[in-house]
Amino acid sequence: MSMAVASTLRSVARRRPRLRLPAAPLAVPGARAAFLSGAAEEAAADAAAAAPPAPGRKVLESFREEFEIGGRSIAFETGKIARFANGSVVISMEDTHVLSTVAAAKSSEPVRDFLPLTVDYQEKQYAQGIIPTTYMRREGAPKERELLCGRIIDRPIRPLFPRGFYHEVQITVNVLSSDGKQDPDVMAANASSAALMLSDIPWNGPIGVIRVGRIDGNFILNPTVDELGLSDLNLVYACSRDKTLMIDVQAREITERDLQAGMKLAHSEAIKCIDPQIRLAKRAGKEKKEYKISLISDTSYEKIRTLSEAPIQEVFTDSSYGKFERGEALEKITQSVKAKLEEENDEDSLKFLSKAVDTVRKQVIRKRIIEEGLRVDGRQLDEVRPLYCESNTYPVLHGSALFSRGDTQVLCTVTLGAPGDAQRLDSIVGPPTKRFMLHYSFPPFSINEVAKRGGLNRREVGHGTLAEKALLAVLPPENDFPYTVRVNSEVMASDGSTSMASVCGGSMALMDAGIPVREHVAGVSVGLVSQVDPTTGDISNYRILTDILGLEDHLGDMDFKIAGTRKGITAIQLDIKPAGIPLDIICESLEPARKARNQILDRMDQEISTARAINDGSAPRLATLSFSSDALRKLLFHRKKIEQETGARVSVSDGTVTIVAKTQPIMDKAIEKVEFLVGREIEVGRTYKGIVSSIKEYGAFVEFNGGQQGLLHISELSHEPVAKISDVVTVGQVLSLMCIGQDVRGNIKLSLKATLPQPRKKKDLESKGPLPSQEVGFAAVENMPSLGTADAEPSSSKHEDGTTVEPPAFSTPSVIIRSAADCDAQDAATGPKKRAKVAKSSPRPYKAPHERQEVRTATAKKTPVATKKTKKVKIEEPESNSLETSGSEEVPEHTASNAEDLKQSPVNFRSGSMKLGDVVTAKVYQIRAFGLVLELSDGARGMHKFEVNGRKEFEVGQELLVKCSSFNTKGIPVFSLVN
């Protein structure tokens, strides 16, 4: 039976050769493959046994402490992130999270005598959901804000490390996420304190850090970024449980009394951060390890003190020493002690020689100040060093000032720019740009050293930002003063408090640049020398020092920089060396700082007390124009070309065009090009410049106002009939035309004759004689917007019936005044021949190239006689018939023999015949900000520009002897005074 079944199966397999059995067992639990042999079943069982087990679930044990300050919940968390770090904490406030980690080297270098603490604060763009805009799309070198936040963390933490701990410590802070509401710097400082508490590094913490603002007189704890914009106080305060460690203030002239109240409130609230850190360290902290402490033995210290104390005391008691002389004398003492120790082969003492000698210096000078009240340079404790102030040091700059206090000297310069020159900030909080910048530079030569200049320096950035905060409070609002301002502070010599000298010099430079700051800002640094009770550790005696030297800063306990005006404080930075100073002593230091600040302000006011005029000197001109977004497309394409052709800087943003130029002519040229390219709203009666694009029989089409087309009809070319339009204008010619309306087809109607004065009949002119009201060649002063500009308007003209017609603005003069040399050259070229009158003359400013025009003047003959013979002068004006006037006046030669005759203007003087070098008598008609408006004998007017810082006292009606020195672009004569 079995044989039959097997035969049947074989026959079936032959009939269906395409049927293939699976090579692996069927994945059915608990089932067996019907067509597998026993060997295949065993192989499948072995493969199932060899499969890897499923991974288990890891549980991260984390610890969390929550507390509340100012109605906002704050939390410390550890154990979840960065578990390998010696200490790591994530602090959170709302949706802002900051990670702080700490690590320390296991061994220190044997010769190191300082704490190499490094704080790296980073704000990566992912924290606010943005990809960096750099070329590599990565964050680059640390920005200024990151360096400043690192200093906020470093300054209160550094004093709490034990004495002799010289192991390398690195604190790394990363902003994990930011909601843009909270500034992460204060959170980072608290997180760094908690991370040090969790680590095994010896540290005498914890600390609490808080920010305090004030809006409408009410203090706000941990204000948001928006609230800080409304606050007149930005106080960052760090403290231990009973002492102050760091203060950083930016304020708008807050009084000393209000500041004391804010600091006391900050202290009481900041200590709320301490207990949660202690609880977190008990739950998850490591035991403190025994790190090697590098301390000199008492025996070695006493030996060094015995050898060096007497000569050091002798140097410090001699007030005649300067900074470098004193340093050289102290270095000789150190080398003398070193030689004696080398003779004795005392290796242990040699290892700590420099540190021990520095300690001896510190004790000698501190003892002398506390017990005798005497300072190194012989000053009283509250005495300010001698001051030197100078403004306008370099007149070619926009603003400059030199400030010296003692041997500290700072040169400050101011540069003004367009709003587009503002600094772009890539910070995750705060404004995107900054229009006021103060850059502080501390070159090596200022302390007579040789060193390489690198990139951003933490100290330079910190000092510059402090001075920037101090001056920011007195700057005018951006709407009133739209310039971008850059102050450069170059330290020329340093002997203490260069940052406060930068405040004083920067304030004077701002006034010298014409920036309307409300009043001066000055700064002074206050120091402290204290004596500590060895049993209790409390301060038993102390002295407050005003305007400290560099040596007093190094050997003292604190550097308390305070800047402000007479009304109040604008900026503060407190750095200390001991492990905290009582708040009462800090509050006591505010009063001597205020008195010293007022003394410095008095001296600064003597040099410069008000801002100079913005257009004096080489200050740039700034103009702001508003356009629609569609109209700005052409300007964006041609902006670089306009800048190259004019020399001005053009910036475009949000429908506003800002132009910055060094001089007024450059500004006028840039505005003209911008308006011609972009176009303005067309107004009837306004004058525009255009280019003739095509000529027809009935008129010419003119392109103007940013590409718009207008029709200049043949009847609007001149007051006289025109037979052929091509005789008057040509394609490509630039014309000044007035818009007179629209025709029935909607074409814009332009007029050339509307910009020209009405012609006069020859008979009327001969009967009336010279017309004093008609000013030929320059504009009426009443219509000039400002002296020295090309925007002057010609004077009014009269019709034949006597009615007065005011010409439009920005018209071109009817007669172009030439110099004497030009007139003589033309007369010599034309000769004595008479030219036939042209019946149809074109307007002179816009004549065709083939047209000619002749102006005949009397040529001077070289004779020994002091006067010239009279001669008829024939002037052919394009807008009227030929004009003959009898020049009967005698023009005296400009010689010393007839100097008295020069004081009188010629009889029947015609301003139209004026040439360069003519000397006339003029009356002062108006006194303006930058010059005089002068009235000549025929009623015409000219101008006299004041020189830079050369303005004198004048009175209206005063007669002056003046000389024609030049003409501006509209033909207005510019006179210089004849001594």
TrEMBL record:
SUPFAM superfamilies reported for this sequence: Nucleic acid-binding proteins, Polynucleotide phosphorylase/guanosine pentaphosphate synthase (PNPase/GPSI), domain 3, Ribonuclease PH domain 2-like, Ribosomal protein S5 domain 2-like
Domain named S1 motif: residues: 685-753
Disordered as annotated region, ranges: 786-810, 824-903
Alphabetized InterPro entries for the sequence: ExoRNase_PH_dom1, ExoRNase_PH_dom2, ExoRNase_PH_dom2_sf, NA-bd_OB-fold, PNPase, PNPase/RNase_PH_dom_sf, PNPase_PH_RNA-bd_bac/org-type, PNPase_PH_RNA-bd_sf
Alphabetized GO MF terms: polyribonucleotide nucleotidyltransferase activity; RNA binding
E.C. number(s) listed in UniProt: 2.7.7.8
Low complexity composition bias: residue spans: 857-867
CDD domains: RNase_PH_PNPase_1, RNase_PH_PNPase_2, S1_PNPase
Membrane-spanning intervals of the chain: none
Primary enzyme class: transferase
Gene3D superfamilies: GHMP Kinase, N-terminal domain, Nucleic acid-binding proteins
Keywords: Nucleotidyltransferase, RNA-binding, Transferase
Family: Belongs to the polyribonucleotide nucleotidyltransferase family.
Database matches in PANTHER family: POLYRIBONUCLEOTIDE NUCLEOTIDYLTRANSFERASE, POLYRIBONUCLEOTIDE NUCLEOTIDYLTRANSFERASE 2, MITOCHONDRIAL
Protein name as catalogued: polyribonucleotide nucleotidyltransferase
Organism in which the protein naturally occurs: Urochloa decumbens
